[in-house]
Design goal:
Keywords: FAD, Flavoprotein. With 538 residues, the protein is an alpha/beta fold. Helix content is 25%, strand content 21%. Strands 1, 2, 11, 12, 13, 14 and 24 form a 7-stranded mixed beta sheet that branches. A 6-stranded antiparallel beta sheet has the order 7-18-19-20-17-23. Strands 5-6-8 form a 3-stranded mixed beta sheet. Helix 2 packs parallel to helix 12. It starts with 11 loop residues before the first helix and ends with a helix. The structure holds flavin-adenine dinucleotide.
Length: 538
């Protein structure tokens, strides 16, 4: 408390507020770097660049403050869904889901997804990062280097494990404290099925076949510790970092092929702000491709259909949309049991087929029922729990399409869940393993019985899967990093064919990581900042 510079000092909030009020009331015509989007990746990029006091950084965010109980109280995360902190995207009717239009929530406001998500911290599998390195042609995206980044950025609160966990970084990560008895039962159930149980999920468990563990969470002193809170908030009193909320980015401004600024609407007022060194798009996997397209970067034919002047033909923009589709299986509790922490404290990864090189199934226990709008009609118990059982390696690919020349108009989101028949086969294996787990001996003391799906076979199981499918909220891969003709950014996250424009968010993933996506987004932000500092001597 004596350290005046610490964000925990009682004086800090006042100083930060006064500093930002001063900076935002005197916006400059240009900054060194403009970071668009204060979500999981954008928060990291802005902070890391602003660590050099000579670099003027402007961080633009369409939403508002994160200073609300709905954000900071970990138990209240579901209350943000459908609120003004949610972009409220909805996928188009999906013929593979009997025409269902799946809601695709994404965070709007400081912290982006990391301010409304379930706070699970999950690093991705070793093989994900090896694939990133191969696609990028750069070993610095590989597992060993990324493991080093994780060690550097974490402030790990669990039992010491220096090979895997760091303790000196900005991201406070803790194992869920005093987990619910049903979270512990899940680990016991895994043991019954001969699935290994680990001390934490972010080490050896994600180097091999998978396993089960108590969840790591971004919660500090009982409050959500979003990536915005971890990275940007402690920097709000610095004169070289301006954080502008209610600032909707519409387009990147080009001079020839060089990005020289952005066009935005701030509190209803249109403006253009210049960027001397570069622009970084960190708007998330729906909005980054959207802004690219409206700026003239995308599939030439699609842009021309809407009369958008083409700056660079990149047919991969908005393609390759991936997500971890999930199927909830629900049990009724014999006695009410209040959810603890975020209500999701145990996790498991496993393979549907032994020959796979990594787990393709992802399970997060939720300590209350989470049906889809369809499966809710099958009856939801007053007291129950759901296994959010998902595909960690989906084969289906969706895409985003322009619908209008107007940047204010939404894109059409074709999520295409289960469009690849292999995903339906894996989903059946996923539900089968989920039922074996939930019906294991370990849960008997707590559970009255299985509510859904029950022992379904053939068409009935197929129907359940298509009715139950929902997003895991891991939208990604729509501006992928790589070296083929569908790639949008290179290994340094530079948009192909133009200068001074990078993408740093979940869009750049070539393939969605095996697990929850915010931790990989932090790594993407770290890599982006590192490469910009290197390239521009920042
Ligand atoms: C309900 C929910 C639960 C989830 N649970 C987990 C979990 O427990 N663990 C986990 O690891 N992951 C979870 N995720 C996913 C994770 O939060 C996201 O993958 C991650 O936040 C994506 O980071 P990003 O930087 O790509 O985009 P985001 O974090 O979405 O950030 C994008 C930012 O850009 C802003 N923005 C968008 N368009 C504009 C514009 N035109 N102008 C200005 N600003 C704009 C947005 O408001 C947002 O702040 C969850 C997501 C949701 C929605």
């Amino acid at each position: 408390m004596d350290d005046l510079a610490s964000p925990d000092h009682p004086d800090f909030a006042r100083r930060a507020h006064e500093n930002q009020a001063r900076l935002t009331s005197a916006l400059q015509p240009s900054y060194d770097v403009i970071v668009c989007g204060a979500g999981s990746s954008g928060s990291v990029v802005a902070r890391r660049l602003a660590e050099n006091s000579d670099v003027r950084v402007l961080l633009l965010e369409a939403g508002g403050s994160d200073d609300a109980d709905a954000v900071l109280n970990p138990a209240l995360w579901p209350t943000n869904l459908g609120s003004d902190r949610d972009w409220g995207f909805k996928a188009q009717p999906n013929p593979h889901l009997d025409g269902r239009e799946i809601p695709m929530s994404m965070g709007k406001g400081l912290g982006g997804g990391s301010s409304i998500n379930v706070m699970v911290w999950s690093r991705g599998h070793r093989n994900d990062w090896q694939l990133f390195a191969e696609e990028a042609g750069d070993p610095r995206w590989g597992y060993e280097n990324v493991l080093g980044i994780y060690r550097r950025i974490e402030s790990w609160q669990g039992a010491p494990d220096p090979k895997y966990r760091g303790t000196g970084g900005p991201v406070w990560v803790q194992p869920a404290p005093s987990p619910s008895p049903i979270a512990l039962a899940m680990l016991e159930a895994a043991r019954e099925l001969d699935i290994p149980v680990f001390d934490h999920p972010n080490g050896p468990m994600m180097e091999q076949v998978g396993g089960a563990a108590i969840t790591d969470m971004l919660v500090r002193n009982g409050r959500r510790h979003s990536l915005y809170r971890a990275y940007v908030r402690p920097w709000l009193d610095r004169p070289n970092l301006t954080v502008l909320t209610q600032a909707l980015v519409r387009r990147v401004v080009f001079q020839g092929r060089r990005a020289v600024g952005v066009e935005l609407v701030h509190n209803g007022t249109p403006m253009v702000i210049g960027a001397r060194t570069g622009v970084v798009l960190s708007l998330g996997a729906i909005q980054t491709p959207k802004v690219l397209m409206h700026s003239g970067v995308g599939d030439r034919r699609e842009l021309e259909t809407f009369g958008i002047p083409v700056v660079q033909n990149l047919p991969g923009v908005g393609q390759n949309l991936q997500d971890h589709v999930s199927f909830g299986c629900t049990w009724e509790l014999s006695e009410p049991l209040a959810p603890r922490n975020s209500g999701s404290e145990a996790t498991m990864y496993w393979k549907s087929r032994p020959e796979l090189d990594a787990p393709d199934l992802l399970f997060c226990q939720v300590e209350f029922p989470v049906p889809s709008e369809r499966t809710a009609a099958r009856g939801v118990p007053a007291h129950g729990w759901t296994m959010f059982a998902g595909l960690a390696r989906p084969e289906s690919r969706g895409r985003l399409r322009l619908q209008s020349t107007d940047p204010a108009a939404p894109l059409a989101i074709d999520a295409s869940f289960l469009s690849d028949a292999r995903d339906v086969t894996t989903a059946a294996a996923c539900v089968e393993l989920c039922r074996a787990l939930g019906n294991a001996q370990a849960f008997r003391p707590f559970v009255r019985g299985e509510v859904m799906p029950g022992d379904l076979k053939g068409d009935a199981l197929d129907r359940y899967i298509r009715d139950a499918a929902v997003t895991y909220w891991h939208q990604s891969c729509t501006a992928k990093m790589g070296r083929d003709e569908m790639s949008v950014v290179d290994g340094a996250l530079r948009v192909y064919g133009v200068d001074a424009l990078r993408v740093a968010d979940a869009s750049i993933m070539p393939r969605v990581t095996t697990g929850n996506t915010q931790a990989p987004c932090a790594v993407i932000g770290e890599r982006a900042a590192e490469m910009m500092r290197e390239a521009h001597g920042l």
